[in-house]
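Sequence only, no structure available. Ideas?
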Amino acid sequence: MILRNKTAIIYGAGGSMGSAVAKALAGSGARLFLTGRNIRSVQKTADEILASGGHAEADPVDALDEKAVNDHLDRVLSQAGSIDISFNAAGTEVIQNIPLVDMMADDFTGPITFMMRTRFITAIAAGKVMMKQGSGVILSLTATPGGIGYPYTGGFAPACCAVESFSGNLAAELGPFGVRVVNMRSGGSPDSRVFKEAIESNPEAMKSILQKMEEDTMLKKLPLMADIANLAVFLSSDSASMITGVTVDVTCGTTAGLNYKVVPKGQTM
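Reply:
I predicted one. Tokens follow.
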């Protein structure tokens, strides 16, 4: 129970990744305050945590609403006494799989604006509290396009780059106050909701896409949501007390170099 007596706020806790991280933090002893625009899905995550013996509360909070975020944070602080972990997993629609030269400006800039506004609002709100405490961890999550040129990812790629840059800059400013800021970079989890829905709607095409994504990695596999959640637990713990200002890569090696030309022994290209 390495997160015992820790208080965590999760934004977008009703989504597949937000839910996975919330459950992992709760399973490690943290007290969870879950938020999202869809209270039904957030409450479902809270109920599952409570059923497993954890501690969780759910509230409807729009992470794009600065006042709502700060009001909720004040309530959590008055109730729990501290804010030790903040993680924003709020998602948005992204137009992908078409060339940039064929995109409309609003489709390109939409995810950049959304991700940066919501990450800024929640991280700054938590940062102000953590500065006074002299401790705390602010986590964020991006994907492979944040570390390597990746075609047909539209505005999602620069949004990832912006989040990673923001995370590093915020870490530099909050570090002297004892606050850590770390970003996690995933390679895309095939068991997440967005991938499952894509597989259900177009299984043959997704089979080929997932195979290509796996071939691009050094480990010839993709990280599951549990891999990201386990990393979030570690980074939130005292075991990671010297880690800040970086993006921890969990892409199975994709952003260290595309590896599709190397095949396992016994297989042919």
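DSSP finds eight helices and seven strands in the chain.
Hope that gets you unstuck.
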